[in-house]
Design the sequence.
């Protein structure tokens, strides 16, 4: 992922990453690793969309209303993930780069 960030920056684009998201089969180790991955990506100084915070129960499994199956969100879950993306990042970028 860090290589991808560097490649994106090399073409003068702005990297933004979707964070980890729930899974109905996560055990504590899996969830802890997801949190570590999200924290590592945030340490790079780029936006990381908090899908886990928007759609997960405290153990990293789906909030029931957002689960289609163990590995995937349903329509409400997709909407919650979309809503976790701060749209103002895009409008601010556009304002900052008007020509």
Sequence:
């Amino acid at each position: 992922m860090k290589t991808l960030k560097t490649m994106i920056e090399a073409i003068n684009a702005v990297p933004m990453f979707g964070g980890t998201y729930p899974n109905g089969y996560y055990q504590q180790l899996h969830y802890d690793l997801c949190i570590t991955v999200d924290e590592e990506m945030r340490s790079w100084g780029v936006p990381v969309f908090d899908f886990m915070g928007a759609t997960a129960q405290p153990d990293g499994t789906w909030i029931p209303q957002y689960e289609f199956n163990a590995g995937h969100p349903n329509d409400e879950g997709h909407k919650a993930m979309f809503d976790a993306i701060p749209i103002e990042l895009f409008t601010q970028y556009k304002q900052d780069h008007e020509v």
